[in-house]
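FYI - complex with pyridoxal-5'-phosphate, inputs then prediction.
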Amino acid sequence: MSVPENFNKIKALIPENVELVAVSKFHPIEKIKEVYDCGQRVFGENKVQELLTKVNELPSDIQWHLIGHLQTNKVKYIAPFIDTIQSVDSEKVLLEINKEAVKNNRKIKVLLQVKIAEEDTKYGLEIQEAKEIFSNYLEQKYPNVEITGLMGMATFTNNKIQVKAEFMVLKSLFDELSKFKKLEKLSMGMSDDFPLAIECGANSVRIGSAIFGIRNY
Ligand SMILES: *Cc1c(COP(=O)(O)O)cnc(C)c1O
C-alpha cells in the first residue's frame, strides 16, 4: 500500500478524540509531504539534527513533537519552534527547557516520559520522580513550561497482558496527577500496540512504520 493509503487506514482506526502523531523519523521529505497533503499536521521526530533539517524543508504550519531523548545542550536549537517535547526524562532537561523558553519569550508544552517498560534500556522517569517534578511544577518551579501530559512506551513483546498492565500503570498516574491539575495528553501506543493503548485510555498515539513503512536503519 502507498503512504497515503496507509495513513487513511490508520486514521480510520483512530477515534476522533485521539490525537495522531505521525512519526516521520528516518523517512524522507517526499513521504512526509504525502502525509501532509492528506491533512496531517502533527509530526514526531526523535533526533534534533534530523528534525532541524526537516523543519526547514517543510511547511511552517506543522506542529513538531520531539519524541526521543533530548540532551540538555540541544534544547536551544528547538526551543524557538517546537510544539511539544514528549520526552522529558529528567529534571535537568526540564530546567533547561524552561530556561530556553524564557529566552524565546514563550511557553513550551512538554510531556513527562515515564518508564513503564521492564527493559532498562528505555529512557524515562520513575513514577516517584515524575510525581516530584509534577509537584515542583504546581509550585511554579518551571513557569515557562506547560506539562500537558505523560508519555510512555510499553515493553516490546507480544504478551498483551504485560503491555496492558504497563499502559494501565501510566493511566493510573495520569488520573492521579490530574486530580491536582487536569492533564490533557496521555501519549502511549505505537504501530504495534496503539489499539490496546487506546483501550487503556491513551488520547494521543505515536505511529511511524504503519504509515511510512519499515524504516531502513
Ligand atoms: C519510533 C517511535 C515511535 C513509532 O514507532 P512505530 O513502531 O514505527 O510506530 C513511537 N514512539 C517513539 C518514542 C518512537 O521512538
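Residues 23, 25, 46, 67-68, 153, 190-192, 206-210 surround pyridoxal-5'-phosphate (CB under 6 Å). The beta strands are 19-23, 42-45, 63-66, 84-88, 108-113, 145-151, 185-187, 204-207.
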